[in-house]
Protein 1
Amino acid sequence: MTIQWYPGHMAKTKRKIQEDLKLIDVVIELLDARIPISSKNPEIDSLIKGKPKVILLNKSDMSDPRSNELWGHYYDENKQDYIYTNSITGKGIKELITAIEKKMAHVIERDLKKGRINRQIKCMILGIPNVGKSTLINTMAGRASAKTGNLPGVTRSNQWIKVSQRILLLDTPGILWPKFEDPIVGLKLAWIGSIKETIYDREDAALKLISFLRESYEHCLIERYNIDINPSDEDIDIYEKIAQKRGFIQKGGNIDYSRTAEMLLDELKKTKIGKISFENP
Ligand SMILES: Nc1nc2c(ncn2[C@@H]2O[C@H](COP(=O)(O)OP(=O)(O)OP(=O)(O)O)[C@@H](O)[C@H]2O)c(=O)[nH]1
Ligand SMILES: [Mg+2]
């Protein structure tokens, strides 16, 4: 199964972003801390044509703290700026504002020399669907100005929101790119909730999730679902053990694979399986 999701509204958003770019001082790119590589839209850097950019690793409360640490070391070694954020609680917002002001320091200084004070800073928020863009704006503004929801594709058009006397933010709809070179990218994006749920095979995504978890977070599977895992078990055996533990059995005694998949993907989304990261440096 290969997952691709590039509906027309994303291509349209890309054009709108290019149009609005001339108004923008700083771009804020949100990545998902659970998949810092696969959540990076490879088209964004060429799209923003050298505008100053701040990178946020959002949903850092949902990712594995050990992976956060590893990525921190990696970025430090590579002299890359990054800020861990939680759009809901506001963690990292202070650092974000400092970073924006730092990027703007030379412009503000130039303005001051011309006697122009209190210049507004205009930032555009970019990122994949469901990464927390609108939530970040609402938290910064201290009010629910932008529509949010735990599904990809909630924001449908660009919207300006004033978050302080100094800062105006432009919320944008999440965008993906036309083709994921590596099929695992589409799968990871599906796991974290950035792909529309009705366009891919949920049972296949759940089976592959079990395979990943078994490899990297076996203890989470064992503890959450109260199952034994034997080296000789196939991934499907584990899937069936989980279904049995939850009583997801249809009339006639067959396993309800679909219900099991929905439960697994939902529990992943709600961090019930644990704080899981799918990529390490
Ligand atoms: N745990 C956690 N949840 C978050 C965080 N940021 C956002 N969320 C949740 O993630 C979901 C998506 O948030 P949105 O702000 O609507 O995401 P978006 O990037 O605007 O999504 P689109 O408009 O579809 O592109 C919501 O249910 C938020 O409550 C975070 O840092 N941590
Ligand atoms: Mg949004």
Protein 2
Amino acid sequence: MPHPTVATSRRLEDVRYDIRGPLSRRAHELEAAGKPILRLNIGNPGLFGFRVPQHLRDAIATALPKSEAYCHQQGLLEAREAVAAQHRRNGAEARPEHVFIGNGVSELIDLSLRALLDAGDEVLVPAPDYPLWTAATRLNGGVPLHYPCPPERAHLPDPAEIEAMVTPRTRALVIINPNNPTGAVYPRELLAALVDVARRHRLVLLCDEIYDSVLYDGAAFTPLAPLAGETPCISYGGLSKVHLACGYRVGWLSVTGHEHRVHDLVRALDLLASLRLCSNVTAQWAIRPALEGPNEIGALTRPGGRLHAARAAVVDAVERSEFLRMVAPDGALYAFPGVDPERLPGFDDAAFALDLLEHEQIILVPGSSFNIAARNHFRLTLLPEPAVLADALARIERELARIARNAARRVA
Ligand SMILES: Cc1ncc(COP(=O)(O)O)c(C=O)c1O
């Protein structure tokens, strides 16, 4: 008699994280069969030869003997002071008692939504989004409402459109700036208008700023907390991207806003943080040196830097492409090209991603994995060497040409 499978939680039914989903499992199979795969699907700097700045490594090595006990549930005080000081330098009224350190921003996104949401509460999430925001909203009983950030608008949201989506159940407005996957960097006036929407409708602002210093061609980052002022706002940052230390698993959040309005939220976060005791202590010692030391990512994103050249390689290739169109990314570690629907009608991003993996041994992420209805986009990371990216884009073009030829044959 067959063994019945163990039932799993129904909460997971609508929860997806395709960046590490079935496509990625197929890539592992191909690798196991001896086919090397070019992994353009994950923004993981350490996989592409980037090294964590030496002063962060040294800080951890020196502090290792001090890392053997649990620390405060919110994180090491010196690390929280450094986070609060960074926000104060930007003009926000941050304080270490309202900072929480987590095992990556990932853990803190889940923790914050758990602290905020009751079943059926709504959260405004950008589309496309970093899909953990949608997944964690659903996991915590919430309903994501996706507000569009289409390429025709340079992937920027429209505050009036967002306001029209607000209902009595809407609790929070998620902003990802600089944006993953689109690379959009939001102008100050737009952020101020989003704060106004939140203020008028008593929404909590949840601002994911994990790419705050990953900027190209003079783009300027505007932190949200100083604009939000007394409006409740949680700002998220971490070591994974700007400090190239994904594996350290260090992220933080800072709660700002009128003391009376955020009091219970901070208490709820504290309770949830206590339930997991504390985050990894060892890596927290890197936070202060990261925030007070030199900005090493700047050297990579400026002209002459590797990320600058990588972005240029992708922008050039898309400009030359017969099939692709793109709003060039102003920040973050990705490009989000779209296939021109007039050149390839009926294009299906998921089928394309699978074909590209099988034919060209390249893995990227279909655009629909980022919670958009359109099926003509894909995301790739800018982390490989520029020459590797140029070659990858040539292979992508070859696959698109193959699809075009097959379509023409079907018509003939
Ligand atoms: C927008 C955004 N937020 C949060 C995260 C999670 O980062 P971590 O958990 O490594 O801090 C990522 C990772 O790619 C991201 O792109």
